[in-house]
User: Fold these one by one.
Assistant:
Number 1:
Amino acid sequence: MDVKTEPNVCDKWAETLRVYHNTSCELENELQSRHSLGLSEFEVLLELCGQCHGGDGKAKMKDLEARMYLSQSALSRTVTRLEKAGLVTRAACDNDRRANFLMLTPAGQERLDEARPTHKSVLIKHFA
Amino acid sequence: MDVKTEPNVCDKWAETLRVYHNTSCELENELQSRHSLGLSEFEVLLELCGQCHGGDGKAKMKDLEARMYLSQSALSRTVTRLEKAGLVTRAACDNDRRANFLMLTPAGQERLDEARPTHKSVLIKHFA
DNA sequence: TGAAGTTACATGCCCGTGCATTCAATGTCA
DNA sequence: TGACATTGAATGCACGGGCATGTAACTTCA
């Protein structure tokens, strides 16, 4: 707790807050207006597609939950919304009938592919 | 839009998301459980005290709004909560009777002083 | 095997937020 | 001065989130 570090933490937090707020608001607006996707919905699709985790378009709810900043209930409802929109399907797991497998539908994959450039361009705008 | 920068923006965003989420959750929890203050309530008190802006414990709503990441309506309600808790008072402004002056009450100053170390220690934990 | 604990998920409830609207107080301009 | 635009703030409304709970489906252990 060096005295010199103390004023810095406030500045760092302020900067994090600023970047987070600006970026997430713009992501939310762009994804919603152009692709009818909320940010967390997009993130579920992205995580489900799982390019970053070697996934194959399937995942268990618990695995998703562990990778995302969403509570179990919020994730459950987000998936429900995606399912109603036809972008995702829930399938029972054979081994454990409590667990849900989630799968990207073709429509889901398509929507994700459409939205990805929007997402990336916002990130580039704010981070490049 | 150098190709080499593109993968980096995702990582930067993921990192921002991680830090923001962890820090804000812990701030929220600690401030709430120890001082009965939500994070945005604390931030209003802090901004009102205005050490960082040369304030004197007073501010107009519009000025606060401009400095914070809250919509006008959210700020209005946050101030209402603080007022009900006796930590802040609204006073009409003489020059412009639409505008509100906000003032920290002694209780508000005291609560803020109590909460500040909690706030700072969380920030140090996450940023130092 | 059966009772008690644990896990995965859905759902009821409440809360904080943003958007759109409203209302009163100001400002502007002919 | 009077009509119209603008501004500061409060509020109705809907939505997404977290916490607590319910309920099935496992698991453990004697």
Number 2:
Amino acid sequence: MADINFSVRSAAATKANPEISGARPAETRWDIIELLFFAYRDFVGDPDDVLAEFGFGRAHHRVMHFVHRYPGLKVADLLDVLRITKQSLGRVLKQLLDEGYIVQKAGDADRRQRLLFATPKGEALVAKLAGLQTDRILRALQGLDASGVEAVRKFLLGMIDHDDPDKVLEAILRAGGKTVKE
Amino acid sequence: MADINFSVRSAAATKANPEISGARPAETRWDIIELLFFAYRDFVGDPDDVLAEFGFGRAHHRVMHFVHRYPGLKVADLLDVLRITKQSLGRVLKQLLDEGYIVQKAGDADRRQRLLFATPKGEALVAKLAGLQTDRILRALQGLDASGVEAVRKFLLGMIDHDDPDKVLEAILRAGGKTVKE
DNA sequence: AATATACGTCAACATGGCTGACATAAATTT
DNA sequence: AAATTTATGTCAGCCATGTTGACGTATATT
């Protein structure tokens, strides 16, 4: 049995009073807001379990992901993408370096830079996590035709701030949100 | 100038070797994985700034949102939705109660229950935050036709685990991800 | 030679998760 | 009626991951 005790706000109840001018204020998209919440909760939920087995958390996942995807990423670039301080990054990065998931290499042109690369061990972890997330994504894309998938991509792209993009985001935006092919 | 130092992994480079059987393993959806990361980052980024002015964090936002949307929600239901412990919830809920954003009311049938309701002050905060998020959502939905919007909804719905839903999620799933109307 | 940059690190602190233990009131079962 | 279970609150402490501020070292730039 359902046993629902709470009520649900109706769209009508939260519709703002239209001004006499006739300008209808935009209606709050509770539906998308909540779908995004639950979708993202479950999307990051799968990796969490695997990460826990490695003694890692979401912070490690984010670092591993971007280092894998953009080999040779500088520490400074990583800080921009993750929007965290170097002290925060330092903690998780140090663990990933110590445990052999990532290696550093001094920059060619500028030897102060530490370019980051995933090791085979690191690649394996990323692949495992990305596999779980891809399974979920493919399931969610099932039943959508090509134009539907394109709509999803456009939507997600539109949700992203395009002003002042970091270099990684810039690369993604240039590709139109599509995976870059060679 | 772009000044990109890192490279980008190509889809071809990460394509797994097809087995001799001919079964092609599904390709990792790096594109959607990253779009989701950036989209969600910016989606929750707007409210963060406002919340900081109130001395609140994301945890407070989540609580306020669900209490507003499902008036009379029990504490136990809230714990299920947020997937946190009562101790964690207790901390933020106590602040929201003390500062007059939420009120409690003993359950009619079961007087042990504390049913939660947003006060006008609480409603105002939720409306402000939801407004910011709606602006972003509407911008992202612009340019999509009705079938495109439907595709987005289907996608987000498909990303959510449907087994063992909490009561709030159950209500959403019953409505097919659409905002419930009366 | 002086200054600026890229990075690392130490110390301290805040938020928001967690576990375990225990208390109270009200409902349910025996 | 008594025992037990349930819904909630709370104390104490731990952990992960975010923050600020200060400072050091190597290298690049001026």
